[in-house]
Amino acid sequence: MPGKPPAKTAISTTINGQSYDFLCEPRQSLLEVLRDVLQLTGAKEGCNNGNCGACTVLLDGEPVNSCIVLAVEIADRELTTIEGIAQQGHLHPIQQCFLEGAALQCGICTPGFIVAAKALLDKKPNPSEEEIRFALAGNLCRCTGYDKIVRAVQAAAKRIQADGTVVATPSPQQQAQQQQ
């Protein structure tokens, strides 16, 4: 006799600046819910065990692999997916620089790299090459290699600074250090 299906949990959260209310099973990953319940299919399933970064999203501004985060963990939190990176129909400078620099091929890893790069540039607007490589170390690409990706992030950082497109928000720790 089959067991009873798990009870669903009601979740309220903010995704890409919009309020969402949905039901999910406590065992469902955030990636499953994003793709199958909410139809936000930008985050890709590459490994389903947190090793490839194709499913990277920002949870309260921090990059996480959505395949290993339970959907119930995002209740009352802020989530940004690749769908929320572009604004008002215009590509974000990171996205534009990926295109211009040919920093993508098959596209499976691209959303994760762009989201991880955004997390880095939001915190550190002028990162060194080493800092970029470190921030993107959780993301794998089997097509392009990493040099074009790193160059695209460097170009985006310069463009953002020149255009004033994105203003980095200091963390509470950085704000405290600046006041000392």
From TrEMBL:
Keywords: 2Fe-2S, Iron, Iron-sulfur, Metal-binding, Oxidoreductase. It holds the Pfam family Fer2_2. Residues 9-85 form the 2Fe-2S ferredoxin-type domain. InterPro entries: 2Fe-2S-bd, 2Fe-2S-bd_dom_sf, 2Fe-2S_ferredoxin-like_sf, 2Fe-2S_ferredoxin-type, 2Fe2S_fd_BS, Beta-grasp_dom_sf, Diverse_Oxidoreductases. This is Ferredoxin. It comes from Blastopirellula marina. GO terms for molecular function: 2 iron, 2 sulfur cluster binding; metal ion binding; oxidoreductase activity. It comes from the Bacteria.
